[in-house]
Amino acid sequence: MDERNEEKGFKVVDKRAMSDEEREAGRKASVPATPPASSGGAVDEGGGRLPGADPADSLAGIDAQDPRIAPPGFLDLLQSLQFSAMHHLGMIQGQDGNPSSVDLPAAQDAIDMMGMLKEKTKGNLTAEEDGVLTEGLYVLRMSYLAALNAGKAKP
């Protein structure tokens, strides 16, 4: 075949610093060498599919058994709700350096969800989970009252 008619591919080079062990682990968890016949997507010069080239590939190359990737737990849920409430209470600094705007109804929703979780999970939590939930609820409720009393926004 004429060299001019061959498809030219490209090579992706990751220049981030990695140890030999991390690099070898990345090779083992790489995407399959041949793409499935039914799906499209970009293909590298070695015939392997490029992750992220197709929306269906958003998790391509991720090993669910990898011990470094933990499944979300109850504390992750609490962290998400706490962060949301803190953001709506104006306790989180934005990229511009200013605090986020106060939205007391949204903050109250997040705090109420945490309160509901406390009631529904009573007796089923570890000591750590119960402590994080109890302490987080106390701090957020006091912050909510302080914001309400400061007249930052009406509920």
3D architecture notes:
The protein is 42% helix and 0% strand. α2 (74-88) runs parallel beside α4 (127-150) and α3 (104-120) packs antiparallel against α4 (127-150). The protein is mainly α. The chain folds into 2 domains: 9-69, no CATH class; 74-150. The chain has helices at 20-28, 74-88, 104-120, 127-150. The radius of gyration is 24 Å and the shape is flat. It is built from 4 helices and no strands.
Beta-strand fraction estimate:
under 5%
Total discrete domains: 2
Percent of residues in helices comes to 40-55%
The number of strands is 0
Shape: flat
* Overall pLDDT confidence: 76
Task: Extract low-pLDDT stretches.
Answer: 30-41
Strand-pairing-aware structural class: mainly alpha
The biggest beta sheet is recorded as: none
Topology diagram in text:
Elements: H1 20-28, H2 74-88, H3 104-120, H4 127-150
Quick structural summary:
This protein is mainly α and 155 residues long. It has 4 helices and no strands.
Kindly list the characteristics that best describe this protein.
flat; 4 helices; 2 domains; 155 residues; mainly alpha
